[in-house]
Amino acid sequence: MADGPYTAYDPDSGPSSNGDRDAVPSVKPYHHPAAGWGAAMSVSNFMVRKEHELLSGTRAILKMNHPPHGFDCPGCAWPDATDGLKLDVCENGIKHVAWEMTHKRCTPEFFAAHTVSELATWSDFDLEDQGRLTHPMVYDAETDHYVPISWPDAFEMVGKTLRELPDPNLASFYTSGRLNNEATFLYQLMVREYGTNNLPDCSNMCHEASGRALQASLGTGKGTCDIEDWDKADALFVMGINAASNAPRMLTALTEAHKRGAQIVHVNPLVEAGARKAIIPHDFVDMATFHATKTSTLNLQVRIGGDFALMRGIAKHVLEEAETDPKALDHEFIERYTDGFAGYVREVKDTTWAEIQRQSGLSESEIRKAAGIYCDADRTVMSWCLGITQHEHGVDTIREIVNVLLLRGNLGREGAGPSPVRGHSNVQGNRTCGIDNNPSAEFLDRLAQVCKIDPPRANGYDVVSTIQAMQAGKLEFFLGMGGNFVAAAPDAAYTFEAFRKCGFTVNVSTKLNRSHVVHGKRALILPCIGRTERDEQRSGPQITSMENGMAVVHMSRGIRKPASEHLMSEPAIVAGLAKATLPHTKTPWEYYIEDYDRIREVMSKALVGFEDYNRRVRLPLGFRIRQPARELIFLTPSGKAEFSTVTLPDTINPPGVLTLATQRSHDQWNTSIYSDSDRYRGVKNLRTLIFMNDQDMRERGLKEFDEVDITSTARDGSTRSLHRYKVVPYDIPPGCAAGYMPEMNVLCAIGDYSTESDQPLMKSVKITVALSS
What we know:
Blueprint: E1 26-27, E2 34-35, H1 36-50, H2 54-63, H3 91-100, E3 105-106, H4 108-113, H5 116-119, H6 124-128, E4 132-133, E5 137-140, E6 145-148, H7 151-164, E7 171-175, H8 181-194, H9 208-218, H10 227-232, E8 235-239, H11 243-246, H12 250-259, E9 263-267, E10 277-279, H13 284-289, E11 293-294, E12 298-300, H14 307-322, H15 331-337, E13 338-339, H16 341-350, H17 353-360, H18 364-376, E14 380-384, H19 386-389, H20 394-407, E15 417-420, H21 427-432, H22 441-451, H23 463-471, E16 477-481, H24 485-488, H25 492-501, E17 504-509, H26 514-517, E18 522-527, E19 536-537, E20 540-541, E21 544-547, E22 552-556, H27 570-581, H28 589-594, H29 596-606, H30 613-616, E23 623-624, E24 641-642, E25 658-663, E26 668-669, E27 672-673, E28 683-684, E29 689-692, H31 694-699, E30 707-713, E31 719-729, E32 736-740, E33 765-771
Parallel strand pairs: 2-10, 3-4, 7-16, 8-9, 8-14, 9-12, 13-24, 14-15, 16-17, 17-18, 25-32, 29-31
Antiparallel strand pairs: 1-28, 5-6, 5-18, 10-11, 19-20, 21-22, 22-23, 25-33, 26-27, 29-32, 30-31, 30-33
């Protein structure tokens, strides 16, 4: 296609989502409880006015998160209730389901009426608002239109391209968190049988730091907690999470914790609505009486990137307390189950309170208050999300969180442990089932033995290196299995250019999005069924499975007729691609697709922890994958939990430079934007904004709604800018700023990724702000 303008993120083109050019922006502080009637009214409005799905949507809500006859929510990865709750749903989950169940259809007639160059100028909202994709489509460069193509021809087009590549490593295969376990396993099997480990996934952008930190500290890439631990903890530390928007069902756990007297500490630069109080919609008495429950004991507004210093301060307090109170430390646990304690103690003692305060942005008294809560609790859960991981020192920060937990033996017992909060359904399952550009030798050996293939052993491309390889002309083929890679990736202008250089891009999707209109020289759109829809194969209706953020694998069964008779399931699409690509394959792809139980039989042999898969996944609550560290078995070099000994880094900016964190609005799920408003932050009809501290605004001579230019400076000295963004004063620490992704992704340079995790530094962008001329 011709190079289209970068309009999706250009404020001069108007709102990025709902396209209402005449809407007047406004900001008003939000003082109401999270969830409650605000959520109920927002859901009703969304289902009736925008998606016209009130009746069918209501039926779907009653089936969501209720196996064996319902489907798993396609939103976040928060665990399902274990007590039989009949309304284990949330505002964002319902919106995501209604978004998938929309009556709107994006047909071949639509594509015939619009060139791709035209569509490239549309907003992200307007692209997705065309509804569900109905047919496979191929890009016709002569007419600049997508035109219909049959499934067999689409598969052969991909297969021929891949067969003719001189090196399998010229292709990269991306996975988003929406892919079910069965499709995931087949996908990685196809890619490895083809001959590459180029398997980037959304974890590369989100929680890679969590896996690497926990693997190094505990010998496991996952948290050790389950939802019952949250219910039994005396203290909960919730770090870098906007719970009300990103994991709304967590609010139930927080309100229940407060009611039973647990202490709840929120650590975040912004005091979000979910960190104050909430009304849980399925608590009908509270809804009827407008009774809100607190969701916090203490809110600590740490400086962006200052979480490491906060944890170091808590550790310092614990060690000081231990000088007069032997019970402050769990000496028996430390001696028996940990390694490196003495070196860690020396490092903590060498860190001064002055430096801890400087780096964290908190006072010593604030830190000691949090540390006192920790010391008084017999059982503590510490959780975190992208506010911790998307930083240069994300791995070290998470290891420091584990250090603090180890000091008091908060591991391997009920109500205690590390608990990363995954932001997308089945992103954890994707990694468990083999999506990993850096697979272990043990996994590859087992895959080779069970599946009779010879998998490649060299590490493959992750997200950042995939884009860099495209830009350098070293990648000829890209397949995106779900998601919206182009919009989610960093350095949007660089990424757009890279994709337009690529020889062939293919996207398996449910709706039209940015990745379809910013594409390679050749392109395919392959439409798939959604999580809510029935998956019918030769043996009958199929179930699929997912792994939630606490390692519980459970089944999902779609309930609706697919949006089009021309859709295929993701496992069937993978099998079709594999058969076309691997002419000499011995893998029985068609046999697997006839009955997904056959896929799970193979997975039970190839994946540790999936034994007896078909029976256990059908249990009422599924099954939890065994975590050795939860049993105090540590698969580390020392055979013990490892204390990390790292000097507190200096992350203070030079004068005039702010640290920007990109974030979602409330009316948004990942790159899917439902409106230009952000209810919990009091914003209406505006996304092209930057939240700033009053003091920082005064220093720059700015007032509310002034238009500013925002410029980031990358490590290599290059700059990127956004123009005419509106300033919104907000309660955020001095030196910090925030704004929405994906619009602000343009500011994060492709080379600015963590040397510890290789994650793009989406929440640590160094910027300057100046009044627009």
